[in-house]
Amino acid sequence: MVALKLKVERLTKRFGGLTAVRDVSFEVRDQEILGIIGPNGAGKTTLFHLISGFERPDAGRVFLEGQDITGKSPEAISRLGLTRTFQLVKPFGKMTVLENVCVGAFLRRSDLTDARAVAEDVVELVGLKPFADQPAATLPIGHRKRLELARALATEPKILLLDEVMGGLTPAEIGQMIDTIRRLREGGLTIVIIEHHMRAIMSLSDRVVVMHQGEKIAEGTPKEIAQDSRVIEAYFGGELRFA
Question: What span, in angstroms and rounded, lies between the C-alpha atoms of 138 and 147?
C-alpha cells in the first residue's frame, strides 16, 4: 500500500461573514501529484494557507505523515517537511539568486558551506545556474518563478505545495516547468499544485480536486474531471479540452 503523506480533514475558514473554505477534505499519497483547480475566489490559496500554517482553520485538521500539524507555525511545518511557494513572487531583490536560495537552505543547514552546496544543487536543478550571481531584482518573471521554486526546494521538503508556478510564463517556460515538476516527483517528492493552466495541470496530475465557492465539488482523475458535468457547469462553461 502506498503511504499516506497528507490528509486534509473537513477544513473550514471564515473571514467575517464570508466562508472562504468550507468542509474540504482530501488525501495525498507518497510521490503523488494532486492538482487543485477552480475559478478565482474558489478558496484554493486560502486552503494552502491553512495547510501550511499561514492561517489557522476555524474547523478541521491537517495531518502530515500521520502527525497533526493543525495550527502549527509555517516554520514548524516546514521543518516537518511541508513547504509551499506563493503566487506573488517576492525575492530579496538586492541578494543574488544563489543567496536567495541559501536562505531556504538555512532551515536545515546551519553551516554556510553546507547551505551553499544545497543551494548550488537546487539552482542547477531549476535551470538558474547561469544566473546564480545575478541580483534577483533583475530577473524576468519566468526566472523569478523558478527562483521561488528553488527557495522552497532548498528547505529539502517531503511535500511541496505549488501555488500557480506557471502564471505569467511563456509556452516554452511552461513546458520547462512541467518537465521540472515531473523530475521532482521522480526524485521522490509529493506535490500538490494549484494552477489555472489547464493543459499543464491535467497532464501533470494523478488526481484533481475541484473547488467552487469554498467547497470541494469534485475529485478524480483528469479524465473523470473533464467529463464531470458539475465541473463543466461551475468552472468551464462548456466542454473541457486538455489534449
Answer: 12
Question: Where does the pLDDT of residue 243 fall: very low under 50, low under 70, confident under 90, or very high at 90 and above?
Answer: very low
**Cα angle 124, 86, 18; round to 5:** 165
Give yes or no: residues 33 and 59 share one domain: yes
Range in 99-108, 121-130, 195-204, 234-243 the model is least confident about: 234-243
The pLDDT value recorded for residue 68 is 98
Q: Is 66 exposed, middle or buried (0-12, 13-18, 19+ CB in 10 A)?
A: exposed
Cα 191 from chain centroid (whole Å) = 7
Residue 63 pLDDT > 90: yes
Question: Is 169 in contact with 148 (CB distance < 8 Å)?
Answer: no
Q: Which residue, 133, 156, 179, sits at the end of a domain?
A: 156
- Residue 14, C-alpha cell as written in the block: 471564515
Burial 112-147 (b: 16+ CB within 10 A, else e): eeebbebbbebbebbbbeebbeebbeebeebbbbbb
Range of the structural domain that residue 114 is part of: 88-156
Cα separation, 93 vs 90, whole angstroms:
8
Residue-wise pLDDT tens digits, 152-165: 999 999 999 999 99
Question: What pLDDT was estimated at residue 118?
Answer: 97
Against a cut of 0.90, is the pTM above it? yes
